[in-house]
Task: structure prediction
Amino acid sequence: MESMIPTWQVSFLCGILTWIVLSSMFNLTRMIRSLTQPWVSSCVASGLPVILQIQKYQHTVLDALFVGLSSVVSVPFYTGFLPLLFWSGHGKLARQMTFLMAFCDYTGNCIKDVVSAPRPKSPLVRTLTVTKDEKENATEYGFPSSHTLNTVCLSGYLLHYVLSYNESSDASFQLTAFACVCLFVGLIGFGRIYLGMHSVVDIVGGLVLGLAILEFWLCIHEHVDSFVISDQNVTSFWVALSILLLFAYPTPELPTPSFEFHTAFTGVALGIVTGVQQTYDHFHHEHVARVFTPELPIALFAGRILVGIPTILVVKFCSKALAKWILPITANALGIFIRSSGYVPALTTSSTVKKSNEVKQSNGYLQKMLFFSNQDSFDVDTGIRLLQYAGLAWSVVDLVPSIFSQLNL
Result:
C-alpha cells in the first residue's frame, strides 16, 4: 500500500529541520558572514568611484526613467500584477511566476542578511528614494541586488513561456525578444547604480545568482506545477515548509525589513497552493477562457478587475483581523510566549516584559521543542503577516473566481 506521506517530502522537510538545528548549534550564519562580509564590503568601497562617475550625468529625465523602472520590477508591483495574470486565464504562468518570485525573494534576502554588506555610502553617493517601497529597500543590506535578481528570473521565465507558447515563431522574433529582455535587465542594473541604491558588486551578484536560479527553475518548474495541481499531501506539506522556512531564515547583523518581505511572499505562495489545490479543475486548468479571446473579451476582463480587486483587499483586511484574534489565543493555549512588534498593542515588548521571567521558568511543551530558536518569545506579527497574505492569495485563486462564476464574468 502506498504511503500516505511520500518519502521525498519527509526527507526534504527533515533536511531543512536539520539545517535549522545545526545552524543554531554552530552559529553557521556568523561563520559564513565572517568569510564573505569583508570581501563584499571592500568591493562596495572600491566601487564608489564608478557610482560617482555615473552620477555625474544625473538628469531629471534619467531620474524619472530609472525610478519608474525600479517601481515596475518591485515586489509590490508583482503582488498587484499577479492577480490580473490569474484572472486573465494564464493560470500556469501566474503560478510559476508566483513560486519563482517567492523562491527569488527568499534566496536573495537570505543571502543579503547572511552577508550583511552595506549599500553605497550616502552623502558621498546620491541616493534617490522617491517611493515608500524604495525607502524601505534602502534599509536592507545591499548584496545581492534584489531588483536585478528578480528581473533576470521573472523576465527570463516570461521569455521562456512566450517562446514555448508560440512555437511557430521565427528566429528573428526570438532574437528580438531575447535582446529586449537583455536590454531591460541592463537598464534595471544600471538604474540601481545610477540611483545610488547598489554598487557594481551587488548588481553582478544579483545577475549571477539570478541566472543560476533561472537555470535551476527551468529544470524543475514542470515538476513543481505537476506536484501543486495533482500530487498528494500538497497543502499540509506546503504549510510545514512555510513554517520551517520562517525558522530557517538567518539572523542579520542588524534588523532589516527583509524578513518581513519574505514572510509576506511565503504567505502568498501558501495561499496560491491552498486555493489551486481546491479549484484547479474548475478555474485553473489549461482550457479556461483567456483574455483577448471571444470567450474573455477585454470588457469582461475589466469587469473581473473591478470585482476582484476590492474583494481581495477586503479579504486581506479580514485575514489580518482574524489572525490578530486567533494567533494570540492559540499561542497562549500551547504555552508559547509571544510578543508583537506593532500589530497587537497589548503584546508589545513594554506590556509583556513583566511576564518574561515567569515564562522563562515554565515554557510550554511546544516552546521547549523549539530549542533551536534561541528565543524566549516569538513575534506574533510574523504569523499574522503570513496568514494575512495567505488569505489574500487564496482569495485570488479560489474566492474571487467563484464570484466570477456566479456573475458570469
Residues 30-231 form one domain. The beta strands are 338-339, 378-379.
